[in-house]
Amino acid sequence: MSFIDVTKQMLEAAQYTLGLFFLTLLFAIPLGVIICACAMSKFKPLSYVTHLFIWIIRGTPLMLQLIIVFYGPGLILGIPMRERFLAAVIAFSINYAAYFAEIYRGGILAMPKGQYEACKVLGMSKWQTNRLVILPQVVKRITPAMSNEVITLVKDTSLANIIGLAEIIMTAKNIVATKAIIWPLFYTGVFYLIFGGLLTLFFKWLEKRTDYYKA
Amino acid sequence: MSFYKVQNVYKNFGDVKVLKGIDIDLEEGQVLAIIGSSGSGKTTLLRCMNFLEIPDKADIYLEDNNIFSIDNLKEDIENQEDIENQNNQIEQEEVQKTLAEDSQSSDIDLQDKKDKQKKKKYLEPKLDKTTKSLIRQNRAHFGMVFQSFNLFPHFNVLKNVTLAAKLKYKSTAPKGFKALTKEAKEEKKQAYEEINKKAVALLERVGLGEKLKSYPCELSGGQQQRVAIARALILEPDILCFDEPTSALDPELTREVLKVIKDLKKDGHTMIVVTHEMEFAKKVADKVVFMADGVVEEEGTPEEVFSNPKSEKTKAFLLESEKSIDED
Description:
The structure holds two protein chains of two kinds. By secondary structure, chain A is mainly α.
């Protein structure tokens, strides 16, 4: 099997990797906000339950969560999950939302109390305070931590091969198994490197954009 | 009657009694300096006066109108009894438990547990909606300048100053579809332009007319504090409060901030300044209040308090503050 053939197959597989990556971000970023809001809620039971949820999600392997989302509905409810991709998106979104929620929470807790008080004495409402003063500063504070997490997500997508999603690693493994060549497996690294490199550049640009002030 | 008057201010943080019944009154255009050692409650008093802390008990009057009255102390006593009853119950249960288990836990352990239960976290008093909105309304009477400036780091100087005024305009301006009409847009544009003009004038007033587009991180501490003063003035508060405005600044920067406060006095602003700058209190204040242990220990004109202190505590404090200057 020629280098070009392998590359073609890999690029096809990369569609799943990229799709999983972007859809996970699309759902996990807002879901994280909701989880974060629940975790920080003044209504204690809600906060406790959310912390329990975060503990479970962060305390178990993502691979196990993938297996549960893919096989669970069939075993428990009798409705088998037929869509591998959908299962992967659900598992990844929930998992990353929990991590994002904790990053958001850290960013919000790191805000000096003085900022809230300054808004209070200026007669600003809670909504105005959060939207105009707190949020922009939190975004700046959490950018480095988020970039870390997002780059990890690129590589974590390879875990989806456990439920047979035809992403890059899965495809390479298939080629290795059928064609008796080993190099495609090593070759996968190039795809992750390129993608990770692009993301690094993107986050550098993002950090520069908010560089005009120091929090 | 005086322009501004607070009576019977009490404030507890949990078991700690910070303010134990304070009365202060102030005439329009006067500058009040609150002095006292750390922990005497002077910052808490200032924060109660502009509702950053909600006092447990207080009556506040502005221009003869009672703008705020609260008395949670009675309820507190009842709550205290409730908590004590609960604690007693828990204690009894625990005693029974320990007896039942026949464990060897000593009296010391039990005492420890009791202590832990007593050390409850301080929670802000819960307020109903009407009180909350009343507080928000009343805050408009007060401007506040903080020790740590608390400028918005992501906005430039001009936007820091204009933000509150623009939001205030927005809250009164037409909303929804009405805001899309030409007249509404025109009106908004004019209002914003006026706010900008006013902000620029204020910033020129505090000597920062050339720093409109700078960000707070590009300014010195003294400049930041002067921006904070301009920001507090944009909403035209009746009373401007300063919480140790120069404590984070070196002497030179302190001077420039104090000069601004002096200028504001000339304009007839009523101000309350919590300060460690005795010289400033002497020269600028019309009235000085010395606080110790949550009560007003001594009050009067600067001459009375500084040259002729009656209370032993005031004398000791003034002597101490002079000593530290000599040592420097």
